[in-house]
Amino acid sequence: MQINIFYGVISASVINLELVRGAIRAAQEENAPIIINIVQGQMSKHGDGEIISGIVRTLAARATVPVALNLDHGKDYERITHAFRHQFSSIMIDASEYPLEENIRRTKEVVTLCHSQNVTVEGEIGFIGQAANADEKKLDLFTRVEDAVYFFEATGVDAMAIAVGTVHGKYPSHLAPKIDFDRISQIKQATGKPLVLHGGSDSGEDNIRQAVACGINKINVCTDTFVGCKEGLKTILQETPDVDFMTMMINMETTAKNILQKYIYISGSSGKAANF
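Now predict its structure.
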């Protein structure tokens, strides 16, 4: 296994003002770059892309660290173009459920659109499933090195999410996933391109550090932030039942900041803001 010295940038999922503020505060305190992430499903159910984009751009203009806005797991072309129109910095097209050639066709279509306005594109090859389905144990879903090379060459994507043992959601009984670090190193060596680890939550500090050392450049964090904020709200309500609503929202923001600050430190991106 070849080990290289890299650092990863945290991509923090958000759905509202408090989570955006928490993520940017975490980046500010660590002097780190940050990617604000919103999943297509979250955007369609709650955090409308136009509203989220406005919040992020306003707060990014006040920040002294680089802040990007990414659409995560864009599957519907209508939602992807919505994010494109509302000035998202980057867009992930997730066509991984399709056969390879159809995945390439759909991804290339988004690359053509986005690159016309210098918007970066992340694709996915292999299949990053759900913890609830124990997909992290299904080796046939993992990204193959030769497919990764072909996918980059055929689509022109700027980054690629790879399936190497992590999944979305919470792992059972806090069991960290078994990540295929050799596969990360092989894909990195074969492509020389930015690689993305989805399902960073609950993966374990050592796993994240080693994944970054092997070539992961972006780590997505969602579940830990959402669960932590929920538990924080439950605690404050139990301890102070008459707490006012604004105090609860400030608590949510601070909880998100603390969780993401930890991930920024683990990823090695603390102090790296000036690199962008």
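The first strand starts at residue 9 and ends at 13.
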